[in-house]
Amino acid sequence: MGRGRAKIIDEPVDPTAWMIDNDVANFLLVHQKEVLYMCMLGYTFLHGGKVFAAAPKDASFSYKFITMILACTGGGILVPLFINSIPVPLSNDAYPIAILTSFAIHYYFPIVWEVIKLVPMVKACIIILYEIVRAKVVLTFTIAANAAIAPSLFSFAVFGPIMCGTISGCGGAFLPMNKGIEPILKGMGYPMITACVGATLVHLFLNTSFSEGVIDAKEKAHLHLVLFFISVGLVNGLDLKATKIKEV
């Protein structure tokens, strides 16, 4: 019997594989749980700095603590309620632990945050960790909402997932509910704008012909979302915006 010829299967070559096949991308995409926990700590710590700065001087311990929980997980509370899921602080024990740790540092050792604010490099690192988590949250809830919401007018749900993704990235700004829409009284903050733009681009990319033929489209969309969030976050957090020149 003659031997049959071996079948040669041509595997598709990914010309953009270098984007996600490196250590930096592995960190930004939080493939390891250890990296995720570290980023959660940075995320909750930065939120804590905002909460303690905005809280009244005579605010009680409980007021600051509950406010910080809502600030850190506001989007993760609201969006799961919209899509009939379990809120993040109830389903992931890592978040309460990170919140408790960050709150303890801010409450008992406020000098730590004051020192960090004086060192741009350290503050930049905290901002990067913060934006990594925020990008992951926006991507996760945008995709989850798309799976939960049935299409109506188009072949896929368009506005529902985008709204859910946007809220997931900035929902904490509107909690507690007595704030109403006061947070946007003087315009939308950069977390709201980036969450909306990011959720829109990711959702349209993954559900249209834009991602057709793209290998690991979700991972690459996630990477671009992280880089977008980090870039805007650093510009705003370190006050790198161009200053307006006064006309004489």
What does this structure look like?
- This protein is mostly helical and 248 residues long.
- The protein has ten helices and no strands.
- The protein has helices at 23-28, 33-54, 61-82, 88-91, 94-108, 111-118, 120-148, 159-170, 190-207, 217-237.
- Helix 3 runs antiparallel to helix 5 (94-108) and helix 3 runs antiparallel to helix 8.
- The radius of gyration is 21 Å and the shape is globular.
- It starts with 22 loop residues before the first helix and ends in an 11-residue tail after the last helix.
Notable characteristics:
mainly alpha
Task: Report mean pLDDT, rounded to a whole number.
Answer: 90
What is the CA-based Rg, rounded?
Answer: 21 Å
The helix-and-strand class reads: mainly alpha
Low-confidence segments: none
Strand content: under 5%
Largest sheet, strands/sense/barrel: none
How much helix, percentage-wise, in residues?
55-70%
End-to-end distance, in Å?
94 Å
Count of alpha/pi helices: 10
Strand/helix succession = HHHHHHHHHH
